[in-house]
Design a protein that fits this description.
Elements (H helix, E strand, L loop, with lengths): L1 H22 L1 E3 H4 E3 L5 E10 L12 H13 L6 H4 L7 E10 L8 E8 L10 E8 L5 E8 L5 E4 L4 E4 L4 E10 L12 E6 L4 H15 L4 E3 L4 E5 L8 H9 L2 E3 L5 E5 L4 E4 L4 E2 L2 E5 L2 E12 L10 E12 L3 E5 L5 H9 L5 H13 L3 E2 L1 E4 L1
Parallel strand pairs: 15-23
Antiparallel strand pairs: 1-14, 2-11, 3-4, 3-6, 4-5, 5-10, 6-7, 7-10, 8-9, 11-13, 12-13, 15-16, 17-22, 18-21, 19-20
Helix pairs in contact: 1-7
């Protein structure tokens, strides 16, 4: 039990260090995003060929058979649909292809794509993705993907045994898609930049605006709400927008956040923010253990005597209840003192989760309690 306390105190100290580091000044590029400068999701449906008998079963996966038929027809190969059903093909697999189109992506440049099977293919190892258009949410084609897959896995086997490493039905093609259309986006329209905070907070937004005004003059920046900060590009930088944005991104701003306690009952994990405070409260902790043991009472006749051995089951129930202790937890001025006070009660991390929930209900915890 004492070892558990030591481990929990060490974890609490590590968490305190992390939160103290997070509370220090952070770069604007790490806490905010510039509106109009964002990634765009692309998706497409395609076929992977060249598989060594590990593709889809065309008799079961109808959309693979239909896609293969349409692809052959587009290549000028005339096939009787009724006869096509008799053809056995097991080296083709239907896949979904997805990619991320970066902001300001130029036509002709390449991006990585991820390929995943949607049929009953056993493996995509050794496969080659055929030309697949990638579309955005607006239905327009922004890139075209094609090329050999890199799997990093294998799956081989027969009727009696099978060997598999990693996940063989998902692959990747580095630089496998060529951008065909420039993504939509507006950058510095009318000489105004808009930053969105990743974690909405009025204090952080105000600190960010004040930091920018401190360097470029009052009125350059102003917060709109807890998540948006607008910046007016000064006249000397209207033709140097990139340099101006780069200088803003590297500014360090003191961030703030709400006081939170996050607990995960499944794993027994507890994370406390440095601003969490507890009012004076009395906490009692005790454990009730129920031990059930099944034994058998064996009765057998003497040697050479008639009769048979009889086993009579016996159940023994023991109830052990540890002595509960009522401890006064004074108002904590730091997370370290709070952790020390709660550990003094003699509770494990899982017990502390129940204690935190009870303290929150009692109104003695000044902070948000989040249970995962």
């Amino acid at each position: 039990m004492k070892k558990n306390f030591t481990i929990f105190i060490s974890i609490s100290t590590l968490i305190l260090f992390i939160f103290c580091s997070a509370a220090s000044a952070a770069r604007i590029k790490d806490i905010a995003e510039l509106k109009g400068v964002r990634n765009n999701q692309l998706i497409g449906y395609g076929l992977v060929t060249g598989l060594a008998g590990t593709g889809d079963d065309l008799k079961k996966v109808l959309f693979t058979r239909q896609a293969l038929y349409n692809m052959l027809v587009r290549q000028g190969i005339t096939i009787n649909p009724q006869e096509f059903d008799k053809i056995k093909v097991d080296n083709v697999a239907a896949v979904m292809v997805n990619a991320v189109l970066p902001p300001f992506g130029k036509p002709g440049s390449t991006i990585d794509v991820q390929v995943s099977s949607i049929g009953d293919a056993k493996s995509l190892a050794g496969g080659n993705l055929l030309m697949t258009p990638l579309k955005g949410p607006d239905g327009k084609v922004y890139a075209v993907a094609q090329g050999p897959l890199t799997i990093g896995a294998f799956s081989f086997g027969g009727k009696a045994a099978k060997a598999q490493k990693n996940h063989p039905t998902v692959g990747r093609i580095t630089g496998g898609a060529i951008i065909e259309r420039k993504p939509p986006g507006v950058f510095a329209k009318d000489g105004i930049l808009a930053y969105s905070l990743r974690d909405s907070d009025f204090t952080t937004a105000s600190n960010m605006s004040s930091k920018i005004n401190e360097k470029y003059g009052e009125g350059t920046s102003f917060p709109i709400d807890s998540a948006t900060v607008k910046v007016i590009i000064p006249e000397p930088f209207l033709n140097k927008k990139v340099q101006f944005v780069a200088s803003i991104e590297n500014m360090r701003v003191k961030t703030d956040s709400n006081a939170r306690v996050v607990v995960n009952e499944r794993t027994g994990t507890i994370v406390m923010g440095q601003d969490v405070r507890l009012s004076t409260v009395a906490v009692s902790h005790g454990n009730l253990s129920l031990i059930i043991r099944e034994d058998a009472d064996i009765s057998q006749p003497n040697p050479l005597a008639p009769g048979q051995t009889v086993a009579t089951p016996q159940t023994q129930i023991d109830i052990v209840e540890d002595d509960g202790q009522l401890m006064l937890v004074k108002e904590g001025v730091s997370i370290g003192e709070v952790a020390d006070a709660l550990n003094a009660i003699g509770a494990t991390p899982r017990d502390l989760i129940a204690i935190f929930q009870a303290i929150k209900v009692a109104g003695a915890m000044h902070g948000e309690l989040i249970v995962l």
